[in-house]
Amino acid sequence: MTKRLWIETVGCQMNVLDSELVVAALRRQGWELARDGSQADAVFYNTCSVRQHAEDKIYSALGRIRLEKAKRPELVVGVLGCMAQKDQDLVRRRAPWVDLVVGPGQLHQVPALVEAVRAGGGPRLEVSLDRKGASREAIARSFESYDPDRDPAMRPTPFQAFIRTQTGCDKFCAFCVVPHVRGPEQARAPDTIVAEARKLVAEGCREVTLIGQTVNSYRWADGGRTTRLSDLLLRLDALDGLDRIKFVTNYPRDMTDDLITAVRDLPKVCHYLHVPAQHGSDAVLTRMKRGYTIGDYMEMLGRIRETLPEAAVTSDFIVGYCGETDAEFQATLDLVRTAGFKNSFIFKYSPRPGTKAHERLADDVPEETKKERNRVLLEAQEEASLAGNLRFIGTRQRVLVEGLSARDERREADPGPEGTAQLAGRTMCDRIVVFDAPLRLVGRIVDVEIHAAGAWSLSGVVADGLAEAVPLEDPPAACGTALDLHDIALPRPAARGPEV
Ligand code: SF4
Asked: Does ligand 1 lie within 6 Å of residue 23's CB atom?
């Protein structure tokens, strides 16, 4: 009998990819995707610990699934990912009906664990070592690499895919839980990455996004030769059938000239650099242990602008960080008003147990102040984004058509393959473009004449005259508040994720 699986994913691209891999592994064991949790034999939550809100959502969802589990005790309920690693036993203390708690370094065990639970083996907890509990080598080994076959059905679109370049992070920014829940930074071999890309292309993938917590820190040493991200891009750019390459997320101090030059010189590499500044004040950056000053950041930005004047640069910001004064917030506001970011993902600070900031610094900015600073910064970014987008009116942009626009998705429009709908795609510099065109163009690359611009998207007509000018869509939530962006349920169209 078919076994059916339902998986909900919260968090960043890493989790989106992890969910795809878990589903692929389970499909090989005969599982199929269910329409919803009520029809599933196993319900998994792939979780995020970066903000309290993301954890609260999972505990609420676990509260709801409790009723289903009471009706059907054979239902397997699993908590996967960062929250499983961070909270471990706490998950089952708060939700004793959970059968599986599996950290991100143990996801390869999920198929066997599910079968063990179904066979009556009782609940299972599988997590990696704590970062303070053993040697770096032992901890790294406990976060096992997990790269089985892919599953196009779980991807945002069949023609776009994430590829992991490395796991974990060693930067230990004071506010961030990622190094604790994702383990030490470990690169994957370049040959493995290129082989994965080649396989994806053979399956019809046109765009790959390389993902790492600090993707531009990528280094692989082998036989006296070191492969950097720029070397990897060079190899991927040579793959026939691949049209676009992106990479996220970048760490400012590792934005080297060879990488910037590679982006300029390699035709398939998108001119899009997500390089989170996190704050505009040196004092706050020091409290965050980010490892650079705002002068360093501006110097890096200057090098990008000099080599890639048209590149879209985007950032993340935290408002209301421990001790943030009005003057310090003003420094962030000034940065957003002057740096010309295409967009920024803005987060209210949320203390994370286990981090230095949680242990040593008071979360002393009132919630109302955080909200207000969030609003003000978002407004400033909106102005900057609009100014940046207006420059595109009258230009012709090459767009990879991703699917229905957010507007037509909300309407659940179904015009059939030959019918016209409002479609959305992205330029080589990651700007969203909406236009009316036949659905059969989804997955194709088309030229679009840009006729209008809003803060969050451009609109126009397909250059061969297939479509008419369309009104601007509403600002997509993905470009506004960070929360909507960071909390994604699958399957649904791609959303660009923040750094953490
Ligand atoms: S904010 Fe980014 S660089 Fe800093 S610790 Fe977290 S994942 Fe690493």
From this structure: no
Tell me if the bond preceding 491 is cis, omega within 30° of 0. yes
Structure tokens at 411: 């309407």
pLDDT band (50, 70, 90) for residue 395:
very high
* Closest CA relative to residue 374, chosen from 414, 333, 402: 333
Q: CB of 82 within 8 A of CB of 48?
A: yes
Q: Is 499 in the pocket of ligand 1 (CB under 6 A)?
A: yes
- Span 65-92, pLDDT tens digits: 999 999 999 999 999 999 999 999 999 9
Main-chain dihedrals φ then ψ at residue 405, nearest 5 degrees: -70, 165
Average pLDDT for the chain:
89
Say which DSSP state 477 is in. Answer: G
**Euclidean distance between CA atoms 425 and 445, whole angstroms:** 9
Residue closest by Cα to atom 3 of ligand 1: 171
Amino acid at 413: A
Distance 173 CA to ligand 1 centre (A): 6
C-alpha 18/C-alpha 164 separation (Å) is 10
Could you give the C-alpha distances from 168 to 150, 247, 285, 334, 487, in angstroms and in order? Answer: 21, 16, 21, 32, 20
Average pLDDT over residues 283-306: 98
